[in-house]
Amino acid sequence: MIRPPNPREADASAHAGPLPPGVGIPSGVQPLAHLGEVVDSMRSAWGARRPLILTHRTPDPDALGAMFGLDLLLRRAFGLEPEIAAAGRIARAENVAMLRELELAFTDAERLDSAGYGGVFLVDTQPGFGHTTLPDGIPVVAVFDHHRPPDVEALRERDLPPHYDLRLEVGATSALMYGYLRDAAIELDSRTATALCCGVRFDTLDLAISATPLDSEAFFETFRRADHQKLARIQRPTLPAVYYRDLYRSLSRARRYGPAVLGFLGRVSHPESVAEMADFFRRMEQCRWSLVGGAVGTTYHLSLRTDGNEAYPFLQHVLGSDGSFGGRGTVAGGQVQLASDDWRELSRLERRLRGRALELIDPAERTGARGVRLTQM
What we know:
Blueprint: H1 7-10, H2 31-46, E1 50-54, H3 61-78, E2 83-86, H4 93-102, E3 107-108, E4 117-123, E5 140-145, H5 152-155, E6 163-166, H6 173-183, H7 190-204, H8 213-225, H9 228-235, H10 241-253, E7 255-257, E8 260-267, H11 272-282, E9 289-296, E10 299-306, H12 311-319, E11 324-328, E12 331-337, H13 343-358, E13 372-373
Helix pairs in contact: 3-6, 3-7, 4-9, 6-7, 6-8, 7-8, 12-13
């Protein structure tokens, strides 16, 4: 397999100096104290307008856990009454179970009246990410995230939200949010603890990848306070019949190319099925990385998983100049905006993506130019 450049080497110039003030927390400043200063400086200007907590489209457990953790923090530490909102349909079984079991409810972000909100608190994503749409007229006050932006250098050249807590080493945004709650001495209720625990589990694979001491502390402390029966039902939810139809279609279209499984699925019912199939294929014996793509409307979604190599440069190579992407550790995802829903444009895109993906595989390992159908192995 031909590996892309090591991201630490490829981005050496972008990381040559410190990140701009406000990215990460300024040296010597405690994160909770800095957030408090920002909130206090803006509180009077908000008047009766509420804070708005947002994340990326179709939020996963880490985004959900971080949002509801931040809601508790803003209410208990600062006396605010935030509103939680999110866009996109949630369809993955584990995520649906998390919403159901913990009774997590949020407003549809696509139907917001901007006049009612003073500032946006953004979790598990950053302004400018392709899967994140911010409402017009509401300034971003704070960002809490752990994903590496495609262009770190660009952060130095633009105005940033006042509180920009970006910790690239942390495995889960839910762990980052646990740290704020711990420092504020806020006792976690069972519901919030379970949500945060789900977030840490999801993004670190139960501390198996990208886990820092903060992730470990967050996992064990939230697990201790969590509802264990609900955790079990979230981890192993019942599956709708449509899941098996989508699984059959994915197995029929995916191909094995030696160390990689590539699945270009054409049109799919929901974006989460792309990530779910990438996770599923990566578990195949001797599979070192998996790449799955599928279109919903005029947006083409890509998910890439690796066996331990940094996923970010892999997806950077596959996408080329076709779309936007982001990643952390062994996980990366991207989007391409299609000009129309014409099947011919979709087919051309998938051929380009497949061609670039094959460039990452040693021809001697490919098991044939066309790969091997998974249903024929």
